[in-house]
Design goal:
The protein has about 190 residues and is α+β, with helices and mostly antiparallel strands. It has six helices and five strands; from the N terminus they run αααααβββββα. A three-stranded antiparallel beta sheet has the order 3-4-5, sandwiched between helices.
Length: about 190
């Protein structure tokens, strides 16, 4: 549990309280993860990234930023491979930790939840369908005018699992759920969702 320091966040009421890891994941509580990254430190974090073979392993730059808009990068293909290992529980992490993160990533039927609340993107789906995923948004290190929005995770339907990484990159404004909108559009086009 991390205590809220009293900072006010516009359009992010869910950030203005104490959080556990699970509630911080569900609500994309940036301050929680920034504090956690600082406590872990770049050197120790790089050890974990190497163990998980996560992206380019680069933890240079400010410890509360390198993984948001900084130097740590991962391609969509690399993200999918990491998620295969994560969902396959082959990263060498204790089972309760997997359980906590997966439970925190369960999205509401027909939508996603992020720092600004729940966003309905399609009609609620039927029983036997579950999305465990994480939204995100940021900017390109090389050009702060280039914005990125993503959704990564697993869509499970009737016992079949579809691991994916969706991102939208464009110059100018990008809404935090644009990556999720693209993912849901692709799910519908492929006949996975209605």
């Amino acid at each position: 549990m991390q205590q809220w320091d009293g900072t006010k966040y516009t359009n992010r009421a869910s950030w203005q309280q104490a959080h556990t890891l699970e509630s911080a994941i569900k609500n994309s509580v940036l301050w929680f993860f920034q504090r956690t990254a600082v406590k872990i430190g770049p050197s120790r974090m790089r050890t974990f990234l190497e163990r998980f073979r996560y992206g380019n392993l680069d933890t240079s730059g400010p410890p509360d930023q390198y993984w948001i808009n900084g130097t740590l990068r991962i391609s969509a293909d690399e993200q999918v491979e990491f998620l295969r290992q994560f969902y396959g529980r082959s990263l060498g992490v204790a089972a309760p930790h997997y359980d906590t993160v997966v439970q925190a990533m369960v999205e509401p039927a027909g939508g996603v939840q992020n720092s600004t609340g729940i966003h309905k993107l399609t009609a609620p789906w039927g029983s036997g369908t579950e999305l465990t995923a994480k939204t995100g948004a940021g900017m390109a290190l090389e050009d702060p005018q280039v914005r990125v929005s993503w959704l990564v995770g697993r869509l499970s339907i009737g016992g079949r699992h579809h691991i994916f990484a969706s991102n939208v990159v464009r110059r100018g404004p990008v809404e935090p759920v644009d990556g999720a909108r693209l993912a849901f559009k692709t799910f519908r086009e492929r006949g996975l969702l209605k």
